[in-house]
Amino acid sequence: MPATRMPRMGLGPFAEIETDEALPLAREPDIDLAGISPESLRKAATVLARVEVADAVSEALRADGRSLRDIGQVAGMEAADLSRLAHGRKGTTATSLALLALALGKSLRISIE
Hints:
By secondary structure, this protein is an all-alpha fold. It has a single domain, classed as 434 Repressor (Amino-terminal Domain), CATH 1.10.260. Helix content is about 50%, strand content about 0%. Helix 2 (about 40-65) crosses helix 4, helix 3 (about 70-75) packs across helix 4 and helix 3 (about 70-75) crosses helix 5. Mean pLDDT is about 80; it is low at about 1-25.
């Protein structure tokens, strides 16, 4: 899948994050955050979280094989919301991710590396 450039949001060095470059960004221990405002860091974290969640959710949904409607009925979620999660257009909570994981017969693991 080709990289999709995230919109410029005043994120300083994180202004143009490509979705396929987000994973290495999350694992870079040497990122210099000097001069980055808390607001810019929060915006960058939002982009990074949505990319990570979208990757995990879309992979899990594809692997499951059921329709979004069927999965949503089990999870108590709307099919449209599942689609938005899988495409990075919606944020979510850890509780909702755990609910989705259970509906898919999977576990949820969150790590900070």
